[in-house]
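call fold(seq) -> C-alpha coordinates
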Amino acid sequence: MKILVTGGLGYIGSHTVVELQNKGFEVVIIDNLSNSSEDVLKGITAITGKAPSFEKIDLRNRIAVLEFFKKNNDINGVIHFAASKAVGESVSNPLLYYENNILSLVHVLQELQQKPEANFIFSSSCTVYGQADVMPIDENAAIKPAMSPYGNTKQIGEEIINDVSKVSNINAILLRYFNPIGAHPSAEIGELPIGVPQNLVPFITQTGMGLRSELMVYGNDYPTKDGTCIRDYIHVVDLANAHVVALQRLLENKNTDPVEIFNLGTGVGSSVLEVISSFEKASGKPFPYSITKRREGDVTKTYASTEKANKVLGWKTKSSLDEAIESAWKWEQKVRNN
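ret:
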Protein backbone atom coordinates (compact mmCIF):
# COMPACT_ATOMS: atom_id res chain seq x y z
CA MET A 1 0.00 0.00 0.00
CA LYS A 2 1.37 3.38 -1.05
CA ILE A 3 0.55 6.30 1.25
CA LEU A 4 1.12 10.01 0.62
CA VAL A 5 2.00 12.01 3.73
CA THR A 6 1.87 15.75 3.13
CA GLY A 7 4.01 17.73 5.56
CA GLY A 8 5.73 14.43 6.24
CA LEU A 9 9.01 15.99 7.36
CA GLY A 10 7.26 18.06 9.99
CA TYR A 11 6.94 17.14 13.63
CA ILE A 12 3.83 14.94 13.67
CA GLY A 13 4.22 13.94 10.02
CA SER A 14 7.69 12.46 10.49
CA HIS A 15 6.61 10.38 13.49
CA THR A 16 3.62 9.12 11.49
CA VAL A 17 5.88 8.19 8.56
CA VAL A 18 7.94 6.08 10.98
CA GLU A 19 4.86 4.23 12.26
CA LEU A 20 3.57 3.69 8.70
CA GLN A 21 6.89 2.24 7.54
CA ASN A 22 7.09 0.05 10.64
CA LYS A 23 3.69 -1.38 9.60
CA GLY A 24 4.95 -2.13 6.08
CA PHE A 25 3.43 0.77 4.15
CA GLU A 26 5.31 2.41 1.29
CA VAL A 27 5.44 6.13 2.03
CA VAL A 28 5.80 9.15 -0.24
CA ILE A 29 6.39 12.48 1.49
CA ILE A 30 5.52 15.93 0.15
CA ASP A 31 6.93 18.87 2.09
CA ASN A 32 7.90 22.43 1.15
CA LEU A 33 10.43 22.61 4.03
CA SER A 34 8.92 25.88 5.31
CA ASN A 35 9.05 24.63 8.90
CA SER A 36 11.08 21.44 8.57
CA SER A 37 14.36 20.10 7.24
CA GLU A 38 15.38 17.44 4.75
CA ASP A 39 17.69 16.12 7.48
CA VAL A 40 14.60 14.55 9.07
CA LEU A 41 14.79 11.88 6.34
CA LYS A 42 18.01 10.61 7.96
CA GLY A 43 16.25 10.17 11.28
CA ILE A 44 13.32 8.32 9.72
CA THR A 45 15.73 6.06 7.83
CA ALA A 46 17.81 5.40 10.95
CA ILE A 47 14.73 4.28 12.91
CA THR A 48 13.00 2.20 10.23
CA GLY A 49 15.92 1.05 8.10
CA LYS A 50 14.15 2.40 5.02
CA ALA A 51 14.21 5.81 3.33
CA PRO A 52 10.78 7.10 2.29
CA SER A 53 10.38 8.80 -1.09
CA PHE A 54 10.45 12.58 -0.83
CA GLU A 55 9.39 15.37 -3.15
CA LYS A 56 9.83 19.04 -2.33
CA ILE A 57 6.53 20.57 -3.44
CA ASP A 58 4.57 23.58 -2.24
CA LEU A 59 0.96 22.41 -2.28
CA ARG A 60 -0.19 25.95 -2.99
CA ASN A 61 1.19 25.34 -6.50
CA ARG A 62 -1.77 23.79 -8.32
CA ILE A 63 0.30 22.65 -11.33
CA ALA A 64 2.91 20.96 -9.14
CA VAL A 65 0.18 19.03 -7.30
CA LEU A 66 -1.41 17.99 -10.59
CA GLU A 67 1.93 16.75 -11.94
CA PHE A 68 2.66 14.82 -8.75
CA PHE A 69 -0.62 12.91 -8.88
CA LYS A 70 -0.13 12.17 -12.57
CA LYS A 71 3.18 10.49 -11.75
CA ASN A 72 1.82 8.80 -8.61
CA ASN A 73 -1.58 7.48 -9.65
CA ASP A 74 -1.26 4.39 -7.44
CA ILE A 75 -1.63 6.12 -4.07
CA ASN A 76 -3.97 4.21 -1.73
CA GLY A 77 -4.37 6.89 0.92
CA VAL A 78 -3.39 10.40 1.94
CA ILE A 79 -2.57 11.72 5.41
CA HIS A 80 -2.66 15.50 5.18
CA PHE A 81 -0.52 17.39 7.70
CA ALA A 82 0.78 20.20 5.47
CA ALA A 83 -0.28 23.45 7.16
CA SER A 84 1.01 26.37 9.18
CA LYS A 85 0.14 25.70 12.79
CA ALA A 86 1.01 28.44 15.32
CA VAL A 87 -1.93 30.20 16.99
CA GLY A 88 0.01 33.39 17.79
CA GLU A 89 1.51 33.69 14.32
CA SER A 90 -1.90 33.17 12.73
CA VAL A 91 -3.26 36.15 14.68
CA SER A 92 -0.42 38.40 13.43
CA ASN A 93 -0.35 37.00 9.86
CA PRO A 94 -3.83 35.67 9.04
CA LEU A 95 -3.54 35.76 5.24
CA LEU A 96 -0.54 33.40 5.30
CA TYR A 97 -2.67 30.90 7.21
CA TYR A 98 -5.70 31.19 4.95
CA GLU A 99 -3.59 30.88 1.81
CA ASN A 100 -1.39 28.02 2.97
CA ASN A 101 -3.83 25.90 4.95
CA ILE A 102 -6.86 26.21 2.66
CA LEU A 103 -5.21 26.15 -0.76
CA SER A 104 -3.04 23.15 0.12
CA LEU A 105 -6.10 21.18 1.19
CA VAL A 106 -8.19 22.20 -1.83
CA HIS A 107 -5.47 21.26 -4.32
CA VAL A 108 -5.02 17.77 -2.84
CA LEU A 109 -8.79 17.15 -2.73
CA GLN A 110 -9.16 18.31 -6.34
CA GLU A 111 -6.91 15.42 -7.37
CA LEU A 112 -8.47 12.86 -5.03
CA GLN A 113 -12.01 13.54 -6.24
CA GLN A 114 -10.94 12.39 -9.72
CA LYS A 115 -10.35 8.91 -8.31
CA PRO A 116 -13.03 6.20 -8.13
CA GLU A 117 -12.11 5.80 -4.46
CA ALA A 118 -9.89 7.81 -2.13
CA ASN A 119 -8.96 7.57 1.55
CA PHE A 120 -8.09 10.80 3.33
CA ILE A 121 -6.96 11.50 6.89
CA PHE A 122 -7.13 15.18 7.91
CA SER A 123 -4.95 16.68 10.59
CA SER A 124 -7.53 18.74 12.46
CA SER A 125 -7.36 20.30 15.90
CA CYS A 126 -9.18 20.79 19.17
CA THR A 127 -9.10 24.51 18.33
CA VAL A 128 -12.27 23.90 16.28
CA TYR A 129 -14.17 23.77 19.58
CA GLY A 130 -13.05 27.23 20.72
CA GLN A 131 -13.63 27.56 24.46
CA ALA A 132 -15.90 24.60 25.08
CA ASP A 133 -18.57 24.82 27.78
CA VAL A 134 -18.09 21.30 29.14
CA MET A 135 -14.97 19.27 29.94
CA PRO A 136 -13.89 16.79 28.77
CA ILE A 137 -14.70 17.72 25.16
CA ASP A 138 -16.36 15.02 23.08
CA GLU A 139 -16.93 14.93 19.32
CA ASN A 140 -20.49 16.25 19.70
CA ALA A 141 -19.37 19.49 21.35
CA ALA A 142 -20.46 22.65 19.58
CA ILE A 143 -18.13 24.14 16.97
CA LYS A 144 -17.84 27.69 18.29
CA PRO A 145 -16.42 30.74 16.52
CA ALA A 146 -12.67 30.14 16.23
CA MET A 147 -10.43 32.13 18.56
CA SER A 148 -7.63 32.39 15.99
CA PRO A 149 -7.20 32.30 12.21
CA TYR A 150 -5.36 28.98 12.66
CA GLY A 151 -8.40 27.47 14.38
CA ASN A 152 -10.63 28.93 11.70
CA THR A 153 -8.61 27.24 8.93
CA LYS A 154 -9.21 23.91 10.63
CA GLN A 155 -12.96 24.58 10.89
CA ILE A 156 -13.09 25.61 7.22
CA GLY A 157 -10.98 22.58 6.26
CA GLU A 158 -13.44 20.25 7.94
CA GLU A 159 -16.37 21.94 6.18
CA ILE A 160 -14.63 21.59 2.81
CA ILE A 161 -14.01 17.87 3.36
CA ASN A 162 -17.62 17.30 4.42
CA ASP A 163 -18.91 19.11 1.33
CA VAL A 164 -16.58 17.26 -1.07
CA SER A 165 -17.40 13.85 0.43
CA LYS A 166 -21.07 14.35 -0.52
CA VAL A 167 -20.24 14.59 -4.23
CA SER A 168 -17.24 12.26 -4.56
CA ASN A 169 -15.91 8.87 -3.47
CA ILE A 170 -13.58 10.38 -0.89
CA ASN A 171 -13.79 8.70 2.51
CA ALA A 172 -12.27 10.79 5.26
CA ILE A 173 -11.43 10.71 8.93
CA LEU A 174 -10.94 14.02 10.73
CA LEU A 175 -8.57 13.67 13.67
CA ARG A 176 -9.01 16.50 16.14
CA TYR A 177 -5.98 16.40 18.31
CA PHE A 178 -5.05 18.21 21.37
CA ASN A 179 -1.42 19.18 22.22
CA PRO A 180 1.28 16.90 20.77
CA ILE A 181 4.57 16.86 22.67
CA GLY A 182 7.61 14.61 23.05
CA ALA A 183 9.90 12.86 20.61
CA HIS A 184 10.63 9.40 19.29
CA PRO A 185 12.30 7.31 22.03
CA SER A 186 15.32 6.81 19.78
CA ALA A 187 15.87 10.61 19.82
CA GLU A 188 16.39 10.38 16.05
CA ILE A 189 13.42 12.67 15.34
CA GLY A 190 11.52 15.21 17.42
CA GLU A 191 10.12 18.71 17.41
CA LEU A 192 12.63 21.16 15.96
CA PRO A 193 10.87 24.40 15.02
CA ILE A 194 12.61 26.93 12.80
CA GLY A 195 13.17 30.18 14.69
CA VAL A 196 11.57 30.93 18.05
CA PRO A 197 9.29 28.04 19.10
CA GLN A 198 5.58 28.84 19.07
CA ASN A 199 4.69 25.82 21.22
CA LEU A 200 5.27 25.42 24.93
CA VAL A 201 7.40 22.29 25.22
CA PRO A 202 10.10 23.10 22.62
CA PHE A 203 10.39 26.56 24.17
CA ILE A 204 10.87 24.92 27.56
CA THR A 205 13.49 22.46 26.32
CA GLN A 206 15.37 25.20 24.44
CA THR A 207 15.33 27.31 27.60
CA GLY A 208 16.65 24.30 29.51
CA MET A 209 19.59 24.17 27.06
CA GLY A 210 20.25 27.90 27.52
CA LEU A 211 19.06 28.95 24.05
CA ARG A 212 16.30 31.08 25.63
CA SER A 213 16.72 33.10 28.80
CA GLU A 214 13.32 32.29 30.30
CA LEU A 215 9.77 31.26 29.50
CA MET A 216 7.00 33.85 29.63
CA VAL A 217 3.86 32.25 31.08
CA TYR A 218 0.89 34.03 29.52
CA GLY A 219 -1.41 34.73 32.45
CA ASN A 220 -1.78 33.24 35.93
CA ASP A 221 -5.26 34.62 36.55
CA TYR A 222 -7.30 32.04 34.64
CA PRO A 223 -10.04 30.17 36.55
CA THR A 224 -7.94 26.99 36.81
CA LYS A 225 -6.24 25.09 39.63
CA ASP A 226 -3.08 27.23 39.55
CA GLY A 227 -4.23 30.15 37.39
CA THR A 228 -2.47 28.99 34.21
CA CYS A 229 -4.01 27.57 31.03
CA ILE A 230 -4.79 23.85 30.88
CA ARG A 231 -4.17 21.66 27.85
CA ASP A 232 -4.27 17.95 27.02
CA TYR A 233 -0.67 17.00 26.17
CA ILE A 234 -0.37 13.82 24.10
CA HIS A 235 2.86 12.01 23.25
CA VAL A 236 3.55 12.38 19.54
CA VAL A 237 4.19 8.65 19.07
CA ASP A 238 0.75 7.85 20.52
CA LEU A 239 -0.69 10.43 18.13
CA ALA A 240 1.20 8.99 15.15
CA ASN A 241 -0.13 5.51 15.91
CA ALA A 242 -3.69 6.85 15.87
CA HIS A 243 -3.18 8.05 12.29
CA VAL A 244 -2.10 4.57 11.20
CA VAL A 245 -5.09 2.97 12.95
CA ALA A 246 -7.47 5.48 11.33
CA LEU A 247 -5.95 4.90 7.89
CA GLN A 248 -6.29 1.12 8.26
CA ARG A 249 -9.97 1.65 9.17
CA LEU A 250 -10.54 3.37 5.82
CA LEU A 251 -8.42 0.92 3.82
CA GLU A 252 -10.40 -1.99 5.28
CA ASN A 253 -13.74 -0.22 4.59
CA LYS A 254 -14.69 -0.27 8.26
CA ASN A 255 -15.86 3.33 8.37
CA THR A 256 -19.60 3.73 8.91
CA ASP A 257 -19.87 7.22 7.36
CA PRO A 258 -18.06 9.00 4.51
CA VAL A 259 -16.62 11.40 7.09
CA GLU A 260 -15.83 10.31 10.64
CA ILE A 261 -14.44 12.42 13.49
CA PHE A 262 -12.27 11.41 16.42
CA ASN A 263 -10.70 13.37 19.26
CA LEU A 264 -7.12 12.38 20.05
CA GLY A 265 -5.80 13.21 23.50
CA THR A 266 -5.08 11.65 26.86
CA GLY A 267 -8.27 12.80 28.55
CA VAL A 268 -6.20 14.55 31.22
CA GLY A 269 -5.64 18.31 31.44
CA SER A 270 -2.29 19.67 32.61
CA SER A 271 -1.51 23.29 33.43
CA VAL A 272 1.48 25.25 32.16
CA LEU A 273 3.00 25.16 35.65
CA GLU A 274 2.53 21.37 35.81
CA VAL A 275 4.41 21.02 32.50
CA ILE A 276 7.22 23.17 33.93
CA SER A 277 7.29 20.99 37.06
CA SER A 278 7.50 17.86 34.88
CA PHE A 279 10.43 19.36 33.01
CA GLU A 280 12.21 20.18 36.25
CA LYS A 281 11.91 16.49 37.18
CA ALA A 282 13.30 15.40 33.80
CA SER A 283 16.19 17.85 33.79
CA GLY A 284 16.95 17.77 37.51
CA LYS A 285 17.25 21.55 37.74
CA PRO A 286 15.04 24.59 38.43
CA PHE A 287 13.44 26.23 35.42
CA PRO A 288 13.42 30.02 34.78
CA TYR A 289 10.03 31.57 33.98
CA SER A 290 8.09 34.80 34.50
CA ILE A 291 4.38 35.57 34.48
CA THR A 292 3.11 38.04 31.89
CA LYS A 293 -0.30 39.12 30.60
CA ARG A 294 -2.67 36.80 28.77
CA ARG A 295 -2.10 36.14 25.05
CA GLU A 296 -4.77 36.79 22.45
CA GLY A 297 -6.24 33.59 20.99
CA ASP A 298 -5.61 31.37 24.04
CA VAL A 299 -8.50 29.41 25.53
CA THR A 300 -8.63 28.79 29.29
CA LYS A 301 -8.72 25.01 29.29
CA THR A 302 -9.23 22.18 26.89
CA TYR A 303 -8.93 18.42 27.27
CA ALA A 304 -10.40 15.53 25.39
CA SER A 305 -12.95 12.87 25.89
CA THR A 306 -11.19 9.93 24.25
CA GLU A 307 -14.04 7.46 24.67
CA LYS A 308 -14.98 7.35 20.98
CA ALA A 309 -11.40 6.79 19.75
CA ASN A 310 -10.89 4.17 22.46
CA LYS A 311 -14.03 2.23 21.52
CA VAL A 312 -14.33 2.67 17.76
CA LEU A 313 -10.67 2.80 16.74
CA GLY A 314 -9.44 0.57 19.54
CA TRP A 315 -6.72 3.16 20.22
CA LYS A 316 -5.43 4.43 23.55
CA THR A 317 -2.51 6.55 24.64
CA LYS A 318 0.34 4.73 26.34
CA SER A 319 2.69 7.49 27.54
CA SER A 320 2.35 9.84 30.52
CA LEU A 321 3.13 13.57 30.60
CA ASP A 322 6.42 12.85 32.38
CA GLU A 323 7.44 10.27 29.76
CA ALA A 324 6.61 12.68 26.93
CA ILE A 325 8.55 15.54 28.55
CA GLU A 326 11.51 13.24 29.23
CA SER A 327 11.62 12.17 25.57
CA ALA A 328 11.45 15.82 24.44
CA TRP A 329 14.37 16.69 26.74
CA LYS A 330 16.42 13.73 25.52
CA TRP A 331 15.83 14.85 21.91
CA GLU A 332 16.73 18.49 22.63
CA GLN A 333 19.98 17.49 24.31
CA LYS A 334 20.94 15.26 21.39
CA VAL A 335 20.23 17.98 18.82
CA ARG A 336 22.24 20.62 20.68
CA ASN A 337 25.16 18.40 21.65
CA ASN A 338 25.77 17.05 18.14
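The radius of gyration is 19 Å.
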